[in-house]
Amino acid sequence: VQLQAYGRGLVQAGGSLRLSCAASGLTFSRYAMGWYRQAPGKERELVAGISGAGISINYAESVKGRFTISRDNDKNTLYLQMNSLKPEDTAIYYCAKGVAASRSFGYNYWGQGTLVTVSS
């Protein structure tokens, strides 16, 4: 399995950024996918998750209404649209593969992260 995240960048507060994660080596639609992030000095946290079919979605409270997770199963790609970015969104963002199609079973594989920096 390979998960390659793209879209690192430096943006100003209030700006937007879109992350992508290209997946290979798996039947993409059979697995829930998620975005995690880890800020300096903090634990890694789940930002958003989406079921294999893209029907069930959840978000961390801190990003609700600002971030949108989506997936294209034909392209084996996961996305995270981030709007109204805040300095506290600065972190390394990782895409993750679920244990199964349902989000309920958690995630068991993380790709290389991509750095997002939001300046005030």
How is this structure best described in words?
The protein is mostly beta strands and 120 residues long. Helix content is 0%, strand content 52%. The protein is built from no helices and eleven strands. The strands form two sheets. Strands 2, 4, 5, 6, 9, 10 and 11 form a seven-stranded mixed beta sheet that branches. The chain starts with a strand and ends with a strand.
Features:
four-stranded antiparallel β-sheet, about 120 residues, globular, seven-stranded mixed β-sheet, mainly beta
Question: Can you describe this structure in just a few lines?
Answer:
The chain is an all-beta fold. 0% of the residues lie in helices and 52% in strands.
Topology of helices and strands:
Layout: E1 2-6, E2 9-12, E3 17-24, E4 33-38, E5 45-50, E6 57-59, E7 67-72, E8 77-82, E9 91-98, E10 107-110, E11 114-119
Parallel strand pairs: 2-11
Antiparallel strand pairs: 1-3, 3-8, 4-5, 4-9, 5-6, 7-8, 9-10, 9-11
